[in-house]
């Protein structure tokens, strides 16, 4: 019996080994056993993955992040220990270097959000930093972000047992707050820890524990003798906030333990004397002891910060249009804070803006939103899913979806809003290719390159790379694995005004960190363009294996050479010509054996022979089938002239009898030349006995 099988679709990508027998699912027909160094295409078929252009060595570079004001004004920030290099992709040069407080250990954990010409940088051990450029991109600076009104810490609030009287109440007024003398101890009054009283010859006592009716001079386990200045203002209160009589005063000067000066930020209802514990002193929430925000984002003109060491589940929203103003009131446009509260709530790991502010924690996925405008009185926070996020890998926005790594570090989920459930859902998109994260120590970084092929790049834990051809409209989520000939450290893509996004990587090649551009224009890795002089060029260092090719307007071919010490010696005909030299890319496409029956029947037990194999190639030279070169010359080609890439059908004859499930179906390509397989069709003879 003869059967003809055609494969022109790789939309399921490389499937996990546990799916090799799932011939009953559509992904078996649309997937492959191995896809290495090739990109599955939305249109069908696969093509050679992009090579890389060597730009320069980048000693100590650790991470790449984008700085994009608009498509034609985009830059790349190269993070190094204690500095950032600003790279202009249009001129291909470092235009500035600025100092930072981030050490090599801290750089991978820095989170960021861009707002116009500035980026806010957050790390739990470093105060919020602001990186800025001038509008003409000629001046760059980075420094600590200064709050006009810093977020405050309610947990450390002090409510002194003293009467206090402000001298004024109007907004903007410079006022003082005067404390009354310390009150006498009263037997029936309930005292709290920290309260101060006078008793017996004006001796001042401070409560060491909550108590009622415990006489200070005889109840030494409840009271301790202190100085007359205790229980009042402190010199460290400068910069703190006093909530009194319904208003807020920022302390600007410490005069004494009984007197401070300040500025009214929120109008007081009156300037009458406030009784004991009816007024409060609030200190800033961010400091070296309690920690600084780990997370940041920007939502509806509000800067959003979250997760300090002391308050890992708290989120602070700035005032509308006031990134530095975190003074909390009940006014709609003013700042506010909210705390996630759930049995599964853990530390907030990442913040991302979607329909609301998405909070990814190690225990679940929350969203901060409201039914109308987001205000201090309408804010809601609700848990939507409970998978948990991996704390190492920053999520990546792709269209309307947020890709994040599930707790454990090996599986990828896509969080998005779904109308039918009126909430967020997080389906897994690595379920069919779960082996990739498992085999390579998880996923450490995600970057999205929208053009030309809509690829999500995943830097794996061991320095290898995975790609996902991602197109929801065409139902394509196709994984593939890639080896760039070194240990990849970081990847980042930035848009351009016209054409493909620019993608860059940091990669360790033989102990040296290289800064390279990922592009389909390169057919090798770490490509250099060299001019042949005297029949030779200097061999590039850092590369384990070297190949070369010569390319013109209508031809491309591999340039052969011999190694002579540190030189590559070419034929004389290449003298004065520019050649491309780099490390070869080894492409592998291994297909599943075809299933010719429908479940519950199977053809896997039959003997089979591939009689003929027809390929459709697009601009391809030198492909191989099962290790044998496919000669795609036509009668019209001149065998003495440089080869031109072949587009069209090609037929291969022959084969041998094998068990169907053992038939070798491996297409490879290892030359520094183009490769694009659109479809493969096989005619098989089946022996059903």
What is the straight-line distance between the termini? Answer: 11 Å
Low-confidence stretches: none
Mean pLDDT: 91
Silhouette: elongated
Residue share in helix: under 10%
Query: What about the largest sheet?
Result: 7 strands, antiparallel
Count of individual helical segments: 2
Radius of gyration of CA atoms, rounded to a whole number: 33 Å
| Structural class label | mainly beta
Total beta strands: 61
Percent of residues in β-strands:
over 45%
Could you characterize the architecture of this molecule?
The chain has 689 residues and is mainly β. Among the domains are: 2-43 and 588-687, no CATH class; 153-284, Carbohydrate-binding module superfamily 5/12 (Seminal Fluid Protein  PDC-109 (Domain B)); 287-389; 525-583. Strands 1, 5, 6, 55, 58, 59 and 61 form a seven-stranded antiparallel sheet that branches. The longest helix is centred in the N-terminal third of the chain and has 5 residues, at 26-30. The N and C termini lie close together (11 Å).
Topology:
Layout: E1 2-7, E2 13-14, H1 26-30, E3 31-32, E4 34-36, E5 38-40, E6 46-48, E7 51-57, E8 63-70, E9 73-80, E10 83-88, E11 93-99, E12 111-115, E13 118-123, E14 126-133, E15 140-144, E16 152-158, E17 164-166, E18 174-179, E19 190-191, E20 196-199, E21 203-207, E22 211-212, E23 223-225, E24 241-244, E25 247-256, E26 259-266, E27 280-284, E28 295-299, E29 302-306, E30 314-317, E31 336-339, E32 348-353, E33 357-361, E34 365-369, E35 380-385, E36 396-398, E37 401-405, E38 412-418, E39 423-425, H2 435-439, E40 443-449, E41 455-460, E42 465-471, E43 476-482, E44 487-494, E45 502-509, E46 512-519, E47 525-531, E48 536-538, E49 547-551, E50 556-558, E51 561-564, E52 567-570, E53 578-583, E54 587-590, E55 607-620, E56 624-625, E57 628-629, E58 646-653, E59 658-659, E60 666-669, E61 676-687
Parallel strand pairs: 2-3
Antiparallel strand pairs: 1-61, 4-54, 5-6, 6-61, 7-46, 8-9, 9-10, 10-11, 12-13, 13-14, 14-15, 16-27, 17-18, 18-26, 19-22, 20-21, 21-23, 24-25, 24-27, 25-26, 28-29, 29-30, 30-31, 32-33, 33-34, 34-35, 36-37, 37-38, 38-39, 40-41, 41-42, 42-43, 44-45, 45-46, 47-53, 48-52, 49-50, 49-53, 51-52, 54-60, ...
């Amino acid at each position: 019996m003869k059967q003809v099988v055609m494969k022109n679709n790789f939309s399921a990508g490389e499937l996990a080994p546990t799916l090799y027998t799932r011939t009953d699912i559509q992904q078996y027909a649309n997937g492959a056993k191995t896809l290495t160094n090739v990109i599955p295409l939305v249109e069908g078929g696969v093509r050679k993955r992009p090579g890389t252009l060597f730009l320069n060595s980048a000693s100590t570079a650790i991470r790449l992040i984008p700085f994009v004001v608009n498509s034609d004004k985009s830059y790349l920030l190269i993070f190094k220990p204690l500095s950032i290099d600003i790279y202009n992709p249009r001129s291909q040069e470092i235009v500035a270097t600025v100092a930072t407080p981030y050490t090599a250990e801290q750089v991978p954990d820095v989170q960021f959000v861009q707002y116009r010409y500035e980026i806010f940088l957050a790390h739990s051990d470093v105060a919020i930093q602001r990186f800025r450029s001038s509008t003409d991109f000629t001046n760059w600076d980075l420094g600590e972000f200064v709050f006009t009104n810093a977020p405050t810490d309610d947990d450390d609030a002090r409510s002194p047992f003293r009467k206090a009287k402000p001298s004024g109440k109007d907004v903007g007024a410079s006022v003082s707050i005067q404390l009354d003398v310390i009150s006498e101890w009263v037997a029936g009054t309930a005292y709290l820890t920290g309260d101060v009283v006078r008793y017996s010859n004006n001796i001042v006592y401070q409560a060491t524990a909550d108590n009622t009716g415990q006489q200070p001079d005889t109840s030494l386990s409840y009271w301790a003798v202190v100085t007359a200045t205790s229980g009042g203002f402190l010199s460290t209160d400068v910069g703190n906030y006093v909530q009194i009589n319904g208003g807020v005063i920022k302390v600007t000067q410490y005069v004494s333990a009984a007197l401070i000066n300040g500025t009214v930020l929120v109008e007081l209802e009156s300037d009458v004397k406030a009784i004991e514990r009816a007024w409060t002193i609030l200190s800033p929430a961010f400091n070296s002891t309690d920690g600084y925000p780990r997370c940041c984002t920007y939502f509806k003109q509000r800067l959003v910060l979250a997760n300090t060491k002391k308050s890992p589940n708290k989120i602070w929203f700035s005032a509308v249009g006031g990134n530095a103003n975190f003074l909390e009131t009940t006014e709609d446009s003013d700042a506010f804070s909210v705390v996630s509260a759930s049995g599964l709530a853990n530390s907030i790991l990442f913040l991302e803006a979607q329909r609301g502010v998405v909070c990814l924690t190690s225990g679940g996925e929350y969203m901060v939103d409201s039914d109308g405008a987001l205000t201090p009185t309408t804010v809601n926070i609700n848990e939507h899913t409970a998978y948990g996020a991996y704390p190492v890998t920053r999520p990546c926005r792709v269209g309307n979806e947020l890709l994040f790594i599930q707790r454990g570090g090996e599986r990828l989920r896509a969080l998005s809003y779904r109308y039918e459930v009126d909430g967020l859902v997080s389906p897994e998109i690595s379920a069919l290719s779960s082996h990739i994260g498992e085999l390579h120590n998880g996923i450490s970084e995600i970057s999205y390159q929208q053009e030309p092929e809509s690829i999500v790049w995943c830097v794996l834990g061991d320095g290898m790379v995975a790609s996902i051809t991602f197109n929801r409209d065409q139902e394509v989520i196709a994984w593939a694995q890639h080896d760039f000939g070194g240990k990849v450290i970081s990847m980042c893509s930035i848009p351009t005004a016209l054409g493909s996004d620019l993608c860059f990587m940091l990669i360790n090649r033989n102990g040296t960190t290289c800064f390279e551009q990922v592009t389909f224009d390169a057919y090798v890795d770490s490509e250099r363009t060299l001019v042949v002089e005297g029949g030779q060029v200097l061999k590039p260092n850092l590369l384990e294996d070297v190949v070369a090719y010569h390319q013109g307007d209508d031809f491309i071919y591999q340039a052969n050479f011999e190694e002579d010490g540190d030189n590559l010696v070419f034929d004389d005909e290449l003298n004065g010509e520019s050649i491309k030299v780099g490390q070869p890319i080894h492409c592998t496409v291994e297909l599943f054996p075809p299933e010719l029956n429908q479940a519950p029947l199977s053809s896997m037990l039959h003997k089979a022979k591939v009689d003929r194999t027809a390929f459709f190639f697009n601009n391809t030279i030198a492909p191989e089938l099962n290790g044998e070169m496919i000669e795609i010359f036509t009668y019209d080609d001149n065998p003495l002239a440089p080869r031109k890439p072949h587009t069209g059908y090609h037929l291969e004859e022959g084969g041998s009898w094998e068990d169907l499930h053992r038939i070798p179906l491996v297409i490879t390509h290892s030359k520094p030349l183009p490769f694009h397989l659109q479809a493969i069709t096989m005619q098989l003879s089946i022996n059903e006995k």
